[in-house]
Amino acid sequence: MLKYIVTGICLLLETFTCQPLLASIPPIYDVEVIVFLNNDPHDDGESWPRPAQAAVFNAAFPEGEFTELGKSLYALNNVSYALDHSRSYSVLFHRAWRQLAYDRNEAVAYPVHSIVENGRNSVEGTVKLLRERYLHLDMDLFVMSSNGDSKILYSDDAGNVPVFELREKRRIKSTELQYFDHPRFGVIARVTPYIAPSADDDAIDIGSSDRQTVDDSPLLSNPAAEEDQLTR
What is the mean pLDDT of each run of 10 residues along the chain (232 residues)? Predict the structure, then answer.
């Protein structure tokens, strides 16, 4: 359960009683992320040094901050299917969750951890959603591939090279698809505002059709240069 969700309680109370309480609650969003490997990278043989990663991989999952969504509620299943059935790409990670969007000081990162079934590729890192004046999505992800026919036993094993890092802080507009690019892998993400069903809509699936419409017009601007950082 997400912290501080009091919408259901407020529906049982008078509107004037709920307004101050609801105003203090951060907005709720559904976040969906696909990380995929580029099987035919066009990097002209460029290589990157191994980044320091222990601080990311040893992070504990913040219990109570996220609600995992079932795959039937994913909005990007068709995208994931198309990528995974292409010779050019392989999906490494596909998850969706619901969370509160705090400001930068309070924002909590969602830990990403996935070892692909073949045991030769792994993705680690964090995805952080935050909202202040604008909505932001921060990516800090590492993709590892084992050498030759060996398999990845532990994703932070020093023998699992090369390691590629994508680090980017981006201002986004909700409901729009976001693409984070790297020569070796990519990320597709979508952040959708969520509103709980009213008392008259108990039969509605809260994760599918009942979406909040908000005015995100300030988010139409291009990200500032200092907010977009890609580290390879």
Answer: 47 46 77 93 58 50 87 96 94 96 94 80 91 94 73 52 84 96 93 80 42 35 36 32
Q: Where are the domains of the chain?
A: 26-227
- The upper half-sphere exposure of residue 167, i.e. CA atoms within 13 Å in the direction of its Cβ, equals 10
Q: What is the pLDDT of residue 139?
A: 96
Supply the DSSP string of 188-226, one letter for each residue: EEEEEEB----GGGTTS-TTTT-B-----GGGGSPPPGG
Please list, in sequence order, all residues whose beta carbon lies within 8 angstroms of the beta carbon of residue 188, skipping any fewer than 6 positions away: 33, 34, 36, 76, 79, 177, 178, 179, 180
> Which amino acid is located at 9 in the chain?
I
